[in-house]
Amino acid sequence: MSGYLGRRLLTTAATLIGITLVVFGLMHLAPGDPALLLTGAVRGGRVPPPDVLEAIRAEHGLDRSLGAQYLAWAAAALRFDFGDSLAHRRPVRTVIAERIPATLLLNGLALLVALAIGIPLGVAAAARPGSLVDRGSAVVLFLLYSLPAFWVALLLIELFAVRLGVLPLMGMSSSGASVGRAGGLADRLEHLVLPVTVLAYGQIAFFARFVRSALRETLGTPFIRTARAKGAGSIRVLWIHGFRNTLVPLISLAGLVIPWLVSGSVVVEQIFQWDGIGRLFFGAVLARDYPLVLGLAVVTAVVTMAVSLCADLLYAVADPRVRVGEGR
Amino acid sequence: MRGGSLALRAGAALLAALAAVALLSPLIATDLPLAVRGATGWRFPAFANWLPALLDAPAPAESAAEGERVVSAPVPYSPRNISLAERLEPPSRRHRLGTDELGRDVLARVIHGARISLVVGFCSALFALLIGCALGGCAGYFGGWIDGAVMRLVDAIIAFPFMILLLTIVAILEPGMATIVLALALTSWTAEARLVRGEVLRVRETEYATAAKAVGAGKGRIVVRHLIPNALAPAIVTTTFGVSGAILAESAISFLGFGISSPRASWGTILSSADDYLLQAWWLTAFPGIAIFLTVIACNLLGEGLRDALDPAGSQR
Description:
The structure holds two protein chains of two kinds. Chain A is mostly helical. Chain A has 14 helices and no strands. The mean pLDDT of chain A is 81. By secondary structure, chain B is mainly alpha-helical. Chain B has helices at 2-28, 45-48, 50-54, 106-142, 144-158, 162-172, 177-187, 190-204, 207-214, 219-255, 267-274, 282-310, 312-316, and strands at residues 35-38, 41-43, 69-71. In chain B, α10 (219-255) packs antiparallel against α12 and α11 runs antiparallel to α12. At the A-B interface, α1, α6, α7, α8 and α11 of A face α5, α6, α10 and α12 of B.
């Protein structure tokens, strides 16, 4: 077990270094002089004299070689110091920390909704293959899966916010709604409905299909027949014997889901003007704010890999076959 | 099985229809006449301009003289022609799907958008398949540090939000279709690589691979002629889903303003301007979205059908 953990940690570290190298390289290939970006000359400001530009480059270490810049950045990053954001002019760490709760709220809720609908749907479909529930849900989920998320967002905004006017158009809260805690909460929820729906509908399809196929496989095994033979009720067989075994592969998906959520967030947060990580990322790429892009890349990658590491360990704990197989 | 083959046939038929529209778009939607009967005989301006229009070159001006007989295209508008007098017109007999904020015909733009979406989708998925086969095949066959390096790269790409990597690459390179194809290929080959690697690991141990080695086939020949073709079937299924993924991604980044830009008519580009006119022009949102939806459905149906056809055991579960 400890050998397994050690090897996993090693490959995780190698992957992290790989990600930072790739992002660092990419950002430096980008056109546009960061010193000019810093002075605001790109956004219509006056171009400063060359000696000022030189001073700015020296101050931010931009005059050093790429390798030296990377090493300096990596040494600081090990202390969780990602430098100052060029666009926000504040430490990258603070800027990211401010945005995390909004994204966590949005994505956490979407994930919960997706699991709460997707799992029972998948279980119901697996329980009676070929039934109306199975076929109907397969068709609906297939259609949902093929819908472009940003288009769904536009349609929902058009219907509920523009035509019916029952839900807010965008943003995280209305400016006048901070009076009273209950009112504030209701306002928050109203603003969450549309973005959460857009983020969740594709995941519902994903989870339901995954649970269905994994559960079908489990239900075909001899121990399920044994459980039936000893007189366990069908609900008990389905949920206690069957679903518990599909929970294990479901856990292993966790590592995959995080980067998807951030990807989905980029589009959804942009459309709904939700000030979270996705929108921050988008703005940072647009403004070539590479301390911020690098910082965000590292944070996302660390979270992803931490989650997938935990998932793998849970997997090994939950399923002795994995543990024994790796121990050899 | 019956259902599977139905999905396969429906997906293939829908995709073939879309491909035909894409290929014929310079003849279906153009302001050039299909045929003109002048004093000197027949001229075929739209046909003459077919290939340049497919490559998105601007059309030459063409006007029929007085008294000439003209056969115009079914949708007699170019996707680029601006007509400010007709801006944001709802669907009518003149403009079947209405006009956009610059008075361009939406139907013409949606028809020409099919070409961009399909080219981007298929090219990037094919390049992704090539990269995946090359890297996955090498990783599986050679093992050791090559395998380790390729798999770490795959891990790194998977652990990174796809959309961000895509936007970063697109932001770095010159905007345009080639850039988008390249960026999509570079970010989406990981599934194919993993699959091919796994299959190669499996096939490497089979007797025919050993036999090939025994008769003296070189390493490269074994990988290219024996291992990869056997690993290709599941990889092609993944690639089919890759096409729909690429089409969705292209429309999303064009929508965000990073991808194909106006005056070119990508479905995502049309939707991007629709965002500003939600209240006035529902037709700008509806039709390009339906087009994306249909194309993605066609690819996904084809993918599901292929998967069931290649793995009959899986479809019966």
